[in-house]
Amino acid sequence: MTATLTKPPVDVPAEPERPRRRRSTGSFLNWVATHAIGLALGLMFATPVVFVFLTAVMSDDQAFTSNLWPAEWHWENFVEVFDKAPLLRYLVNSLTYSLLATAGMLISSIPAAYALAKLQWRGRNLAFLLVIGAMMLPPQVVAVPLYDTWSSLGLTGTLWPLIVPYFLFDAFSIFLLRQFMLTIPQSYVDAARVDGCSEFQALVRIIVPMAKPGIAATALFCFLFTWNDYFGPLLYTGEVKDQWTLSLALATFKGMHIVQWNSSMAVTFLTMVPAVVLFVFAQKSFVKGITFTGVKG
Description:
It is flat and about 70 Å long. It has a domain at 89-292: MetI-like (MetI-like fold), CATH 1.10.3720. It has 14 helices and no strands. It is 68% helix and 0% strand. The longest helix has 32 residues, at 87-118. With 297 residues, the protein is mostly helical.
């Protein structure tokens, strides 16, 4: 018989556990260092919004001082501005303008972008160059002839001269959607044609579902532009207050109420809220749409 000798277990000293607070502090500092540029940009863009909000809840006397923090919080300022101006009417006008213009842009731009991206036809490149040329044309150049045209039709004093053109042509939206549709492989459209789909069916069933991020980004661009538009409403509805939008009303609110900065900032903050909320909920689609736009030319 042979005896098997086994070595006694050697106790290995365990490493001392680092304090959790030190590790959490280190990871936090590492995260801050990694996102330093993003944090700086976020702080830079958030500071004006915070300043507008803090001024909006100040008293009328404190709004004229250099104090940045409200001594008393006057939440009633957001209610009183509705008594000083018909903001609900202006809100309805802004929503009508932005929503109808965005809907018209999608109806007119999606088929045009599909024709420029997926169809082969003579003059396609020339048409695309015309779209780019229309993007470079300043709107002030055609303001006078367009105003004369709408005036002869009896539509000045309303928002229709601003809404109807989006149902006909919008160069920037066509360009953006065309660039995104180029990233969708042509084989999907060819397969749909082989299966018997018409061009309209291929657009609706294949391209539109795959181009949702690009469509969302384009719609967000159009909505924000029309929501903040000042020149158009001023040109066509400047003398008809019932047709004013929030952007036009905001520009005249200060003069109407003799520089009440707390009220002016309250209206400004209320005007900013819908656009900020829309961007927060649509930011993923917006970022994805912008990321993939322009990959292929």
